[in-house]
Write a structure and sequence with these properties.
The protein is 43% helix and 19% strand. It is α/β, with parallel strands linked by helices. α1 links the parallel β1 and β2.
Amino acid sequence: MKPAELSLVIPLFNEEENVVSLLNVLTSALKKEGISYEVLAVDNGSMDNTGDLIDKFSKKCRNVIKIKVKENKGYGFGVLSGLKKAKGKYIGYLWGDNQISPKTTIQVFKKLKKENLDLCKITRIERTESLLRIIQSMIYNLLVKLLFGVDSKDMNGCPKIFKKEAYEKLNPESKDWFLDAEIMIKLKKNNLKFGEISVVSKDREGGKSSVSLLTGFEFLKNIFKYRFI
């Protein structure tokens, strides 16, 4: 069988309220656009019915492949577990919380190809999270810009889609939430081209975010560790 053109990884941790809706809408949108794809749905150590729901969906749609992570070792570990299995010419990942429209994922992919970019992603110009979360993000993005020269207002914005050879050159390793920043820093270091699409994120309809105040401290620790150590 010919490899898919586009491989998309979705890390899912306790997302039983979102996973079926997300997979339905995403696969329908990709099929409608005539894009040859595979979706690697990563059960990232979930303790609810996420894994069972992925199993049921993958039996109906052969383009959806389940990746099982027995123990949650972090957001980055889940993403990388899927990306290691990706076979497409273009590979990427997106969140499993259903806050970004699948149509946006397709827009990111089209921009990547049209402009011959190494990576394309979103940047959220309006966000619906708590004020604390928004302030955390502003400080984080500013620090990455000041310390590493990366010019993006939303380092963590996903989906992120790469040319496969660009991803292999970057070779990201972070197992936690620093994965996105590591990718953006290495893009800058390697003089690779990236583009962004501005979007407005919507409210999470179900489930609970695993990002907490401790995540903010984790970000700061990793930034300074990566810069000075």
